[in-house]
C-alpha cells in the first residue's frame, strides 16, 4: 500500500498526516535509509541518510509529502535529531567494521539550522556515538543560508569549529549567487539532479555541469553529483570531476536500510 497524490494535498489530509506523524517516532514507524556515495571506481565512500515513514495507516509516505508537514509543525526538530543520531550510530558501526573512512551526510532542516543550541546538540550526538565530526557532512540549502545571512555565518562557523563538513545541497536550484559560495565556509557542493538529468544527451546541461565542476575546483570544494541514473551520466561526471567528485544515484545504489548496506560494504567491490 503506497501513499498516492490522490489521497492528497487537501488540508484535511495534511492534518491527518500531522496527527499520525506526531506519534510516528515513538511508535517506531520512522527509519533512516542510506544511499551510497561512490568514488569513480565504484567503491563506497559514505552515504546520505534519508528518512522513511512507513505508516500503518497511510503506507509508505514519501519525504516530499511529510517533511514539509514536519517542518511546519515543528516536529522536524525532534525527528531530525533522531535522524542525526541514527546516522552517526550506524556510521560509527561501519567505521569500526568494514569501512574505517566511512562518512555520512545528513540533511538539516531550516528549523534545526535556526535552533539556538544546534551546535551543542550535534556535539552531544557525536560524543554519544563516538562518530568523528570530520566524517559528518551536514547538508544545507542555498535558501537556508540566504535568509538570515549573519546568523547563518555564525552557525556555520560554530559547526566548522566543531570539525563538521558542510555541504550545499541542490546546488543551482536556489539563489545560486556565486558570491556566497566564497563567503560561507563550505566543503562540499552537491550538484542537483536536475543538471545531472541532461548529461549524456543535452549539450547545455553538460556545459553547466562542466562550469560548476570548474568553479567548485577553483574554490577548493569537493563535489557530489546526485541523481546519477545512467552510464552516460556517470561517464561524463567522471570525465569532468575525476577524483574530486563522488557519485550518488540509482545507478550506484538506491537508499537502503542499514543492514542492506552492511552486505554491500562486505562485498569485495564495496
Ligand atoms: P534530497 O536531499 O535532495 O535527497 C535526494 C533525493 O533524491 C532522495 O529522495 C533520493 O532518494 C532521491 N534520489 C537519489 N538518487 C536518485 C536517482 O538516481 N533518481 C531519482 N529519481 N531520485 C534519486 P527522498 O529520499 O525521497 O528525499 C526527498 C527529500 O526529502 C530530500 O531531498 C530531502 O530534502 C528531504 N529529506 C529526506 N530525509 C530527510 C531528513 O532526514 N531530514 C530533512 N530535513 N530532510 C530530509
Ligand atoms: Ca540532501
Ligand atoms: Ca539533494
Ligand atoms: Ca535535489
From TrEMBL:
<protein>
    <submittedName>
        <fullName>EAL domain-containing protein</fullName>
    </submittedName>
</protein>
<feature type="domain" description="EAL">
    <location>
        <begin position="14"/>
        <end position="269"/>
    </location>
</feature>
